[in-house]
């Protein structure tokens, strides 16, 4: 039996990679300095894994921006607009800057090249850069970062196990630029993977991990054949010294057991946390003398595992198959914070119940000891700790919360009137122009604002002084929007550190870490709250700031809230009750805030649900069950208001075609979505479905430092107007402006207003 790992967080315990990247982008350090800091991080993480007893150290899980983007560069999948040309017109070598340009947008060869699209990685909150494939795509080995890392790991005395996204999942995650079947490219792609395996063999590698999370979905016959074709190809072509571990996660693959058991691979990893599969379906794999890696420690949450229970479940397999069994996390630990030892302010009872990435490695070691030495003194100590954790979790129930849930009726999930009647009432109350212009909520979080919050939290700034400073920022934000010509204003969210953490800090049942950061994309990290108990609202959370902002202007100011589904998905939620119950608890708390805002005279309230689609199970056949309770949780939060109060919601990075009915069932009066990178293509779903309510398609890609030109915005708005009636069309950026600077935001908004006014003259 071996203890193994699928991948480790790359950002560092103190977000060292984030800060190094941002220094590099600002020109404060050069590439050599960036790479030196990255190497220090990798060496630290490799040593932690070795110290925990991990026998094959994952290599290739590190990425400067995104591991899918790194693989795209490795395979020469670079969009034509981002191919830097030499003086003689030939393609220049792919560098780190090439990757950053693809992710962030840049000027290339004298032309502005837009960033590639960004989507959620399966059902996680990690974002990847979507590879763009042409019908005549040429694959070749073009970027060698992973080979350098193999040598770096070997130099540190480790036995590296390279980790790559498998060919079939890579194609599945890619975007076909044109009308063709992506699977047609598989035969051109496989020889490059073959070369990669040969290079690994030359470096002395023995195991290579290919991640194929696409197996957790319900694959058509052609995609199943692609899996068979791929791994038969590797079996026939790879060096005999190389063994392949096929890894799938984020869902069970028991429905593909027959397919998977017949694959000629030397090892299989299965996720025993997500879904209901058991190892029994894959025993034929073991009978063929393969390795079966059991994902028994949750790689996507922070709660300590009940390893005594896990030990009982796997004991018989260990006894029967011994060296053929590996113990591992369910998936890469990329989705977990780095190190619980960095938390110095959590109370001891809660900290006892937690395990971050570094501690999950130790849990694997402890699990291995339990199953191999069940009667030892150390094993008795491990079981004692498990018992204490279970006892601590057992006393969480808030009876008042459950009483309120029990008293809900169907009317609590319905608005007073249908949308058409509400639209008339809202038009009379708000008196907005055609194509009303708004923003998604946040404005630039400057260093001064972050410093202000930090001083207040550390007790260096008195509460009254802090409030006066925040009011000054809000006043400035309102004045800037008014002078630019925005129609529906926002207060800017300068008091908020994060759209989920801010609310969690004011809700019962939440706790917070100091350094529980996880990567969302690039240098963007989030610090999810911990939902450890029943959720309720003790007092209003946004009322004072919103009403102050409204007092400064005659224009409507939106109340800005985060929705229950997003708060749930972007938190580390307790595992002892159903997620539907947690969502409804949060929904009731947000509902209370919505009603308070309405009663205070706020006529537009936005309840953001950017993570709505994120909770979808990977298997489409399981979607409806999730969508039913997710829609109800949103409606519970939104349906306590009168017809004249306009409810907005915001979603980003969503493919709406398969969920459009559920989105319509949410019955928000206005939905704003990210569409600028797709050139309004995402609106096709709303047009085809004849979405009945109002829509604000984004015209400003806020994830890029590029300032959109007026003519480009006008072009996007014209495309939107071709798909959605102008009477139901809003104008807004793709997402919040928190991560941008005022130097970028103000000219962008000026161009949006100018483009909108031009279109009003044309169409209204």
TrEMBL record:
<dbReference type="Pfam" id="PF08267">
    <property type="entry name" value="Meth_synt_1"/>
</dbReference>
<feature type="binding site">
    <location>
        <position position="608"/>
    </location>
    <ligand>
        <name>L-methionine</name>
    </ligand>
</feature>
<feature type="binding site">
    <location>
        <position position="735"/>
    </location>
    <ligand>
        <name>Zn(2+) 1</name>
    </ligand>
</feature>
<feature type="binding site">
    <location>
        <begin position="524"/>
        <end position="525"/>
    </location>
    <ligand>
        <name>5-methyltetrahydropteroyltri-L-glutamate</name>
    </ligand>
</feature>
<feature type="binding site">
    <location>
        <position position="570"/>
    </location>
    <ligand>
        <name>5-methyltetrahydropteroyltri-L-glutamate</name>
    </ligand>
</feature>
<feature type="binding site">
    <location>
        <begin position="440"/>
        <end position="442"/>
    </location>
    <ligand>
        <name>L-homocysteine</name>
    </ligand>
</feature>
<feature type="binding site">
    <location>
        <position position="652"/>
    </location>
    <ligand>
        <name>Zn(2+) 1</name>
    </ligand>
</feature>
<protein>
    <recommendedName>
        <fullName>5-methyltetrahydropteroyltriglutamate--homocysteine methyltransferase</fullName>
        <ecNumber>2.1.1.14</ecNumber>
    </recommendedName>
</protein>
<feature type="binding site">
    <location>
        <position position="608"/>
    </location>
    <ligand>
        <name>L-homocysteine</name>
    </ligand>
</feature>
<dbReference type="GO" id="GO:0032259">
    <property type="term" value="P:methylation"/>
</dbReference>
<dbReference type="InterPro" id="IPR006276">
    <property type="entry name" value="Cobalamin-indep_Met_synthase"/>
</dbReference>
<keyword id="KW-0486">Methionine biosynthesis</keyword>
<feature type="binding site">
    <location>
        <begin position="15"/>
        <end position="18"/>
    </location>
    <ligand>
        <name>5-methyltetrahydropteroyltri-L-glutamate</name>
    </ligand>
</feature>
<dbReference type="GO" id="GO:0008270">
    <property type="term" value="F:zinc ion binding"/>
</dbReference>
<feature type="binding site">
    <location>
        <position position="614"/>
    </location>
    <ligand>
        <name>5-methyltetrahydropteroyltri-L-glutamate</name>
    </ligand>
</feature>
<dbReference type="InterPro" id="IPR013215">
    <property type="entry name" value="Cbl-indep_Met_Synth_N"/>
</dbReference>
<feature type="binding site">
    <location>
        <position position="125"/>
    </location>
    <ligand>
        <name>5-methyltetrahydropteroyltri-L-glutamate</name>
    </ligand>
</feature>
<keyword id="KW-0479">Metal-binding</keyword>
<feature type="coiled-coil region">
    <location>
        <begin position="340"/>
        <end position="367"/>
    </location>
</feature>
<feature type="binding site">
    <location>
        <position position="650"/>
    </location>
    <ligand>
        <name>Zn(2+)</name>
    </ligand>
</feature>
<keyword id="KW-0677">Repeat</keyword>
<feature type="domain" description="Cobalamin-independent methionine synthase MetE C-terminal/archaeal">
    <location>
        <begin position="435"/>
        <end position="757"/>
    </location>
</feature>
<feature type="binding site">
    <location>
        <position position="674"/>
    </location>
    <ligand>
        <name>Zn(2+) 1</name>
    </ligand>
</feature>
<feature type="binding site">
    <location>
        <position position="735"/>
    </location>
    <ligand>
        <name>Zn(2+)</name>
    </ligand>
</feature>
<feature type="binding site">
    <location>
        <position position="650"/>
    </location>
    <ligand>
        <name>Zn(2+) 1</name>
    </ligand>
</feature>
<feature type="domain" description="Cobalamin-independent methionine synthase MetE N-terminal">
    <location>
        <begin position="4"/>
        <end position="318"/>
    </location>
</feature>
<feature type="active site" description="Proton donor">
    <location>
        <position position="703"/>
    </location>
</feature>
<comment type="pathway">
    <text>Amino-acid biosynthesis; L-methionine biosynthesis via de novo pathway; L-methionine from L-homocysteine (MetE route): step 1/1.</text>
</comment>
<keyword id="KW-0808">Transferase</keyword>
<dbReference type="InterPro" id="IPR002629">
    <property type="entry name" value="Met_Synth_C/arc"/>
</dbReference>
<feature type="binding site">
    <location>
        <begin position="440"/>
        <end position="442"/>
    </location>
    <ligand>
        <name>L-methionine</name>
    </ligand>
</feature>
<keyword id="KW-0862">Zinc</keyword>
<keyword id="KW-0175">Coiled coil</keyword>
<feature type="binding site">
    <location>
        <position position="120"/>
    </location>
    <ligand>
        <name>5-methyltetrahydropteroyltri-L-glutamate</name>
    </ligand>
</feature>
<dbReference type="GO" id="GO:0003871">
    <property type="term" value="F:5-methyltetrahydropteroyltriglutamate-homocysteine S-methyltransferase activity"/>
</dbReference>
<dbReference type="GO" id="GO:0009086">
    <property type="term" value="P:methionine biosynthetic process"/>
</dbReference>
<feature type="binding site">
    <location>
        <position position="18"/>
    </location>
    <ligand>
        <name>5-methyltetrahydropteroyltri-L-glutamate</name>
    </ligand>
</feature>
<feature type="binding site">
    <location>
        <position position="652"/>
    </location>
    <ligand>
        <name>Zn(2+)</name>
    </ligand>
</feature>
<keyword id="KW-0489">Methyltransferase</keyword>
<feature type="binding site">
    <location>
        <position position="493"/>
    </location>
    <ligand>
        <name>L-homocysteine</name>
    </ligand>
</feature>
<comment type="function">
    <text>Catalyzes the transfer of a methyl group from 5-methyltetrahydrofolate to homocysteine resulting in methionine formation.</text>
</comment>
<keyword id="KW-0028">Amino-acid biosynthesis</keyword>
């Amino acid at each position: 039996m071996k203890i193994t790992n699928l991948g480790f967080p790359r950002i560092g315990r103190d977000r060292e990679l984030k800060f190094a990247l941002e220094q590099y982008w600002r020109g404060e350090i050069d590439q050599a300095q960036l790479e030196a800091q990255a190497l220090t991080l990798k060496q630290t993480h490799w040593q932690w894994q070795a110290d925990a007893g991990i026998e094959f150290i994952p290599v290739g899980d590190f990425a400067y921006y995104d591991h899918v983007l790194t693989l795209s560069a490795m395979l020469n999948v670079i969009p034509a607009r981002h191919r830097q040309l030499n003086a003689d017109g030939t393609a220049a070598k792919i560098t780190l800057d090439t990757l950053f340009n693809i992710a962030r947008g840049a000027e290339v060869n004298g032309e502005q090249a837009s960033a590639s699209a960004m989507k959620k990685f399966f059902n996680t909150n990690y974002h990847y850069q979507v590879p763009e494939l042409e019908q005549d795509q040429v694959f070749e080995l073009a970027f060698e970062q992973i080979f350098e890392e193999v040598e770096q790991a070997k130099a540190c005395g480790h036995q590296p196990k390279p980790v790559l996204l498998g060919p079939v999942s890579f194609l599945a995650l890619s975007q076909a630029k044109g009308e063709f079947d992506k699977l047609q490219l598989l035969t051109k792609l496989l020889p490059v993977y073959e070369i990669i395996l040969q290079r690994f063999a030359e470096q002395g590698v023995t195991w290579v991990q290919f991640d194929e999370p696409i197996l957790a979905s319900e694959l058509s016959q052609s995609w199943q054949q692609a899996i068979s074709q791929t791994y038969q190809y590797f079996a026939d072509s790879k060096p005999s010294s190389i063994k392949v571990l096929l890894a799938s996660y984020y869902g069970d693959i028991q429905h593909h057991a027959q397919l998977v058991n017949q694959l000629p691979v030397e090892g299989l990893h299965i996720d025993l946390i997500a879904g209901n599969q058991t190892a029994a379906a894959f025993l034929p794999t073991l009978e063929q003398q393969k390795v079966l890696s059991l994902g028994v420690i949750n790689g996507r949450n922070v709660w300590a595992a009940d390893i005594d229970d896990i030990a009982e479940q796997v004991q018989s397999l260990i006894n029967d198959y011994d060296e053929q069994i590996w113990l591992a996390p369910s998936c890469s630990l990329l989705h977990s914070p780095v190190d619980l030892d960095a938390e110095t302010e959590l109370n001891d009872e809660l900290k006892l119940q937690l395990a971050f990435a570094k501690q999950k490695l130790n849990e694997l070691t402890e699990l291995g000891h339990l199953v191999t030495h069940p009667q030892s003194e150390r094993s008795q100590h491990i079981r004692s700790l498990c018992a204490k954790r279970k006892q601590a979790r057992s006393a969480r129930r808030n009876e008042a919360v459950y009483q309120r849930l029990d008293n809900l009726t169907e009317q609590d999930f319905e608005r007073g009137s249908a949308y058409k009647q509400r639209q008339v009432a809202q038009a009379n109350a708000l008196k907005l122009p055609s194509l009303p212009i708004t923003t998604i909520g946040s404005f630039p979080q400057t260093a001064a604002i972050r410093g202000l919050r930090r001083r207040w939290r550390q007790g260096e700034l008195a509460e009254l002084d802090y409030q006066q400073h925040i009011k000054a920022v809000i006043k400035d934000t309102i004045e800037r929007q008014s002078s630019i010509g925005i129609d529906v204003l926002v207060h800017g969210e300068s008091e908020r550190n994060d759209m989920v953490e801010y609310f969690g800090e004011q809700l019962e049942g939440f706790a917070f870490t100091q350094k529980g950061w996880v990567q969302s994309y690039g240098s963007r990290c989030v610090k999810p709250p911990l939902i450890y108990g029943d959720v309720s609202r003790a007092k209003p959370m946004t009322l004072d700031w919103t009403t102050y902002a409204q007092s400064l202007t005659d224009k409507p100011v939106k109340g800005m809230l985060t929705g229950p589904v997003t708060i749930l998905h972007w938190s580390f939620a307790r595992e002892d009750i159903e997620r539907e119950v947690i969502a409804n608890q949060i929904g009731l708390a947000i509902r209370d805030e919505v009603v308070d805002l309405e009663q205070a005279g706020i006529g537009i309230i936005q309840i953001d649900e950017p993570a709505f689609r994120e909770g979808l199970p990977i298997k489409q056949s399981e979607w409806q069950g999730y969508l039913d309770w997710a829609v109800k949780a949103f409606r519970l939060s939104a349906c306590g208001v009168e017809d004249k109060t306009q409810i907005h919601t915001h979603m980003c990075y969503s493919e709406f075609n398969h969920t459009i009915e559920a989105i319509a069932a949410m019955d928000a009066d206005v939905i704003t979505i990210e569409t600028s990178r797709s050139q309004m293509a995402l609106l096709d779903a709303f047009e085809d479905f004849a979405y009945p309510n109002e829509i604000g398609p984004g015209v400003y890609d806020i994830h890029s430092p590029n300032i959109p030109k007026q003519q480009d915005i006008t072009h996007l708005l014209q495309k939107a107007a071709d798909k959605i009636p102008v009477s139901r069309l809003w104008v807004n950026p793709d997402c919040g402006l928190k991560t941008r600077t005022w130097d970028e935001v103000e000219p962008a908004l000026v161009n949006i207003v100018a483009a909108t006014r031009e279109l009003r003259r044309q169409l209204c």
